Amino acid sequence: MISIITLISVILLMLGSFFFIAGSIGLNRLPDVYTRLHATTKCDTLGQSLILLGVMMYEGMTFTSLKILIIAGFLLIANPTGAHALAKGAYLSGVIPCENTEPDEYRDLCAEVDDDLAA
Amino acid sequence: MGLPVKRKKDLVAVSLTFVALYLYWVVLSGILDVVHLSLGILSALLVAYFFSDLLMQRTGRGYVSATITRVFRFVPYLFWLLCQIVRANIDVVKIILDPKLPISPCIIKFDPGLSGDVPLTLLANSITLTPGTLTLDIGSERSYYVHCLTQHHGEELLAGEMHLRVGAVFGGDDA
């Protein structure tokens, strides 16, 4: 019985690691900041959830696994917020998206705001 | 907001906040002796008395029950979102590991037709959590600017039901 739970948690840990590795490969292969954010923040979200779930399975029903669940919840809130802040900060400080980004409706908005400031 | 208005404390809101905070304290401390449990009661009571307005925002009559309804409607949404995250993650991993790297990034404007800070934040974070889409900014008239990894992801977002589900959680009322 215990060995089955251990087996499930090991499988979850391996799946989580797989998503982390895929995210890291994406970080190297993708062309610009914004697409790289997709790879790192997203694959890591599922990767860390699976790893924390695996640790919870291994730990069993204790206060520690409840705490891990709370950590997973906070990461699910913090991760997209950080990604959003990074992307917006990068765009507003002039990091240009890669060439084939089409359409880019945010550029039009930023141009409008610049015109308003200039006027 | 203007000057803070001194309002009468709502006993139901304070007690519900106290219960939530105290459960959280017990989980985090994990020690079930008299000292820790009574310290928890003391601190949870203090925080619940002063800050119950933050958890249960006064949005008019019956705001306590509205908050509870939202929590119950949020749980199925959370499960749906987790399924979406898993499905889309596999999708993105396929793109990343594809030797040809078939990406066609785009930044699209997306008007969800929602209002209120909490629904807008929840939707923006949900969009970002779902791989393939990344919220850049919320512009004027409450429209999102979303960076998509492929054109296909953008079309899926525009045709998708995520904003409708977020709207359903909040039941159309503005938080």
Description:
The complex is a heterodimer of chains A (119) and B (175). Chain A has 119 residues and is mostly helical. Chain A has one domain (2-118). Chain A is built from four helices and no strands. In chain A, helix 1 packs antiparallel against helix 2 and helix 2 (33-59) runs antiparallel to helix 3. The mean pLDDT of chain A is 82. Chain B is mostly helical. Chain B folds into two domains: 11-56; 72-170, no CATH class. Chain B has six helices and three strands. Chain B has a three-stranded antiparallel sheet with strand order 1-3-2. In chain B, strand 2 and strand 3 (144-148) form a beta hairpin. The two termini of chain B are 15 Å apart.
SS summary, helix count of chain B: 6
Q: Please report which band the strand proportion of chain B falls in: under 5%, 5-15%, 15-25%, 25-35%, 35-45% or over 45%.
A: 5-15%
Q: How far apart are the termini of chain A?
A: 72 Å
Q: Biggest interface, which chains?
A: A-B, 45 and 35 residues
Query: Could you give the count of β-strands of chain A?
Result: 0
What is the succession of H and E elements of chain A?
A: HHHH
Notable traits:
heterodimer; A: about 120 residues; mainly alpha; about 85% helix; about 0% strand; B: about 180 residues; 2 domains; 6 helices
In a few lines, what is going on in this structure?
The complex is a heterodimer of chains A (119) and B (175). Chain A is an all-alpha fold.
